[in-house]
Write a structure and sequence with these properties.
This protein is an alpha/beta fold and 251 residues long. It is 15% helix and 27% strand.
Amino acid sequence: MSDSLSQTGQKPVPVSVQPFQFRGLFLTAIALRLETDAPDGAFYAALDAQLAKTPHLLAGAPMVLDFAQVPEFSKPADVRDMIDNLFARDLQIFGAQNATDAQLSAVKGYGIIPIKVGRETAMPEPKPQKPQPAAKRTAPPVARNKIVRSPVRSGQMIVAEHGDLTVVGSVASGAELVAAGNIHVYGALRGRAMAGAHGDESARIFCRQLDAELLAIAGLYKTSETIPAELRHKSVQVYLDDDKLCVEAFE
């Protein structure tokens, strides 16, 4: 029998291999919110001071420009001058949020894409409708918590996108924990921990031994340089209180 024929006497159907895949990606980015519509020498001096203070947080981190507070800052030459200054500081800016059409036009040539964020809007007036039978009540979505029963190594990123994250073990320097809810670490926390990743300000971080590079809740953060020395190697909880990130040792 010819090699080109199958056992049934028919030519085999060629197998095609998909050359790519589309896959979801959970990305942790930092937003740089502009508070002044005319970045000047004082702006860049403050930025340089922050970059020197938190190099581990900002080095190589994906970053989004937030224009929410400066809708009037839209003159193309001024916006492009600012972006040139930011790129010169090796900031990895890839997106813009809360931007006007003029601002998006100004950043377009830099490969910066618009990032959509949710906003509250007025509900439309309801139209008269015929009475409908009562819909069946559905149970609220159940949080999907994640438990990791082994140490988290440097370079690993563990994500609990819809609930709490618990690590039964230590978290190495260079590792990253991200959770929509709380984070519990039953061991030493040396890497980064970001709770309330979707904006839950009631989320907390608990760890048995604090030596973290970064702690964050709902976008507010502390780096290793700003964590008091007396809290190092202690069992602590981290929480938000009136927009302030608090680190408290357990007695």
